[in-house]
Amino acid sequence: MWEYTDKVKDHFLNPRNVGVIEDADGVGEVGSIACGDALTFYFKLDENGKIKDATFQTFGCASAIASSSALTEMVKGMTLQEAEKITNEDIAEYLGGLPKEKMHCSVMGRDALEKAISCYRGEPAKKIEGQIVCECFGVTDREIERVVRENQLTTIEDVTDYVKAGGGCGNCHDRIQEIIDSILGAERPVKKKAPVLTNLQKIRLIEETIEREINPTLKKDAGKLDLIDVDGNRVLVRLGGTCASCVKSPVTLKHYVESRLRELVSPEIVVEEVQQ
Prior knowledge:
This protein is an alpha+beta fold. The protein folds into 3 domains: 116 residues, Alpha-Beta Complex (Sufe protein. Chain: A), CATH 3.90.1010; 53 residues, Arc Repressor Mutant, subunit A; 75 residues, GMP Synthetase, Chain A, domain 3. The chain has 10 helices and 8 strands. The protein has a 3-stranded antiparallel β-sheet with strand order 1-2-3. Strand 1 and strand 2 form a beta hairpin. The protein is elongated.
């Protein structure tokens, strides 16, 4: 369970400025309900060009609600030039900190603010810059480079915490690591060949991989995976939590769970879902 500060809890339980500004000067939309997080940010300027009102609508977790609420309070009274200097770290600090697994919520707020300001200025929607690295969440190499540099990230897990990249099928992990290494100037270690496992060793390693590698990622979006049985190279599992009803669960199951088990246990593994 994540530890939330009192300020995060307050902004989650008593969110400020929820709703729509019908005649908003700027509107910014980011995220996707299908991916578990979505935010729309609105602001209205006064006669002096300062933000007099800001509201939000969001679909997401406690941290997403708290981050959005905090942002609307932070920008009031600011000029757009001042507001556009707000970083995701500023939002997290305003709340007294966020669990590292939830830093993507502050990034989402920062991005929504930037889009709302661009909307006011009449700037065309930014074209996707760079190449898509994470197909599951549509994250580009430029976005990953930005959060790595701004937040001094050092691991794939860090990147997932900030922009969700790598939190789906896992096929982009090598590319994310390459980006991190290029920024840090690190050299990747040569992968060792997997040892031959007995059946008992294989089962134990599968259990450990699910608990150590897979479930922590799924739990970030209130999902989980239960191991039901192992029959040779067939791994029978059951999806729970939000994963049980998610339209992307087949992708998660085959391209993330199976991919990770093949990488960390055996390349012959085939994952099958057992229905409730």
